[in-house]
Amino acid sequence: MNADVIKYVVLAVVFVGLLMRLKPTIEGRNNSIFIALALMFLGIALSIESIYLVVDGTLGGHNYANLVIRFVVFIAFLIFGVKMAKAFSAPWAGWLIVGPVGLVVLGACAVLAIVFFVMSDLPQSSVGLHDYGNQELVQWYGRVGRIYPAYVAACLIVPAATCALSSSAAAFTRTAAAFLAAAFSIMTCYEIGRELWLVHGIWDVILPFGAAFLLAVGLILFVVARYSAQRTKRPKALPDC
User: What pTM was computed for the model?
Assistant: First the structure.
């Protein structure tokens, strides 16, 4: 399957998630999740070659659009991490994400991403920096770009899985949590696989974008679960995500 086809499919699902989040956002509920999904939409859109080349060309044609993707992903996962740790009643996960350790990981990844980007030789637009993959600095740039979302994902696997296995939660809620747990597990395993040189080729697209797909579906199902609970007039303690 063509890599861009996969990306367009995931982009469409994220867009559906944005539409479903629009009404709660207008009403002033869960604005941050809408923002995180919008950032996720932007990051995926910029990973598509035709879009990337236009945007990066506008920015000067030196792959600044790739740096934008990195920081869009960092901010989106920071928001997702904070909101989901709270939603799943996992303060320890929230502490790992926005406590001293989490902030050090975020700060180090952000600073190193800028440093490696500036030091790399990137004269022309190249989606995913594929034309420069043989540069060691570009490889380190890609590595630090993956570490932070993988770190946040690892912090959220247990809270999401616990909710998915909870007998007191509604079916839609458990299903949504299961999708999120799967997404976070894939993100974490993807980074480990990349470090061990086990992931390459089309899997370098399927795994991260597959995780994004599962994440978007999980968030959509949480909206469905809330609407379902409201229609049946049985207010349950739903995760606020």
Answer: 0.91
